[in-house]
């Protein structure tokens, strides 16, 4: 649990207990401890960054090292998404700041958890977000961007084999009149492993977590 402790800091106990409940299939118990923490004054942003994100990273590590099954990983992810949905009345009540974002995973990309967290945190900061989810056809993403003309497009990819589809999408955006100058932010494991990759594919920036994404968004939309 060293990685979880390092990422969670003062929230280590809550994150550990939450993750343990999920790994032991006690979904309702996990949900109850999160709702109790919020009722006691823990900010939803802290829950997202220091409990959800930290526990998901650790669960992913356990899966990659064959300490848990893919079924367990899927259960934990689905359970966390359910808890996130329970928090939406708080998240979507934030006063809006006038900015809009479209967030999507390119065609073929099934790992959506990280991007969903990013979209939710942007909502908490007052953005109107249009979250399109996993495995969205490029043409559908493009049409949504044309219709909305957001300030920012956030795109995610976790598997190297999906990079080509993401690159094709960015090229489509850059070659489409009226939206060619829209700011594009990317995230995901390939960009973590190759920090300069985002420049090569035509994006305006890369962030490795949701809080950094918000700071980056403020920077690039004002440039």
In percent, how helical is the residue content? 55-70%
Distance between the termini: 41 Å
Output the radius of gyration: 17 Å
Strand order of the largest sheet: 2-1-3-4-5
- Give the name of the CATH architecture of the largest domain: 3-Layer(aba) Sandwich
Q: What is the overall shape?
A: globular
- How many strand elements? 5
Structural class from helices and strands? alpha/beta
* CATH fold naming of the largest domain: Rossmann fold
Give the integer mean of the pLDDT values. 90
The ordered string of helix (H) and strand (E) elements is: HHHHHHEHEHEHEHHEH
Low-confidence region ranges: none
**Percent range for β-strand residues:** 5-15%
CATH class of the largest domain: Alpha Beta
Summarize the structure.
The protein has twelve helices and five strands. It is an alpha/beta fold.
Task: Give a description of the structure.
The longest helix has 21 residues, at 44-64. Helix 2 packs antiparallel against helix 3 (27-39), helix 7 (113-124) crosses helix 12 and helix 8 packs parallel to helix 9 (163-174). This protein has a 5-stranded parallel beta sheet with strand order 2-1-3-4-5, sandwiched between helices. By secondary structure, it is α/β, with parallel strands linked by helices. The model has no long low-confidence stretch (mean pLDDT 90). 58% of the residues lie in helices and 11% in strands. It is globular and about 50 Å long. The termini are far apart. The chain has 2 domains: 2-91, Methyltransferase, Methionine Synthase (B12-binding Domains), Chain A, domain 1 (Orthogonal Bundle); 100-221, Cobalamin-binding domain (Rossmann fold, 3-Layer(aba) Sandwich). The protein has helices at 2-8, 12-23, 27-39, 44-64, 70-86, 88-91, 113-124, 138-148, 163-174, 189-193, 197-200, 210-221, and strands at 100-105, 128-133, 152-156, 183-187, 205-206. Keywords: Cobalt, Metal-binding. Residues 98-223 form the B12-binding domain. GO terms for molecular function: cobalamin binding; metal ion binding; methionine synthase activity. It comes from Methanobacterium formicicum. One of its GO terms (cellular component) is cytosol.
């Amino acid at each position: 649990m060293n990685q979880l402790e390092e990422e969670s800091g003062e929230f280590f106990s809550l994150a550990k207990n939450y993750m343990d409940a999920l790994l032991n299939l006690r979904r309702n118990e996990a949900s109850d401890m999160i709702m109790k923490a919020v009722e006691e004054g823990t900010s939803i942003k802290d829950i997202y960054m220091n409990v959800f994100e930290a526990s998901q990273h650790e669960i992913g590590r356990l899966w990659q090292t064959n300490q848990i099954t893919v079924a367990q990983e899927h259960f934990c992810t689905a359970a966390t998404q359910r808890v996130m949905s329970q928090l939406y009345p708080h998240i979507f009540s934030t006063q809006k700041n006038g900015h809009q974002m479209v967030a999507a995973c390119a065609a073929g990309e099934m790992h959506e958890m990280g991007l969903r967290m990013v979209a939710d945190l942007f909502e908490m900061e007052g953005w109107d977000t249009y979250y399109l989810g996993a495995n969205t056809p490029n043409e559908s993403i493009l049409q949504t961007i044309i219709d909305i003309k957001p300030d920012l497009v956030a795109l995610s990819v976790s598997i190297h084999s999906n990079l080509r589809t993401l690159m094709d999408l960015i090229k489509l955006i850059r070659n489409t009149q009226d939206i060619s100058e829209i700011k594009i932010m990317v995230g995901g494991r390939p960009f973590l492993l190759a920090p300069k990759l985002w420049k090569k594919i035509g994006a305006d920036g890369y962030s490795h977590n949701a809080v950094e994404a918000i700071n980056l968004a403020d920077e690039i939309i004002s440039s």
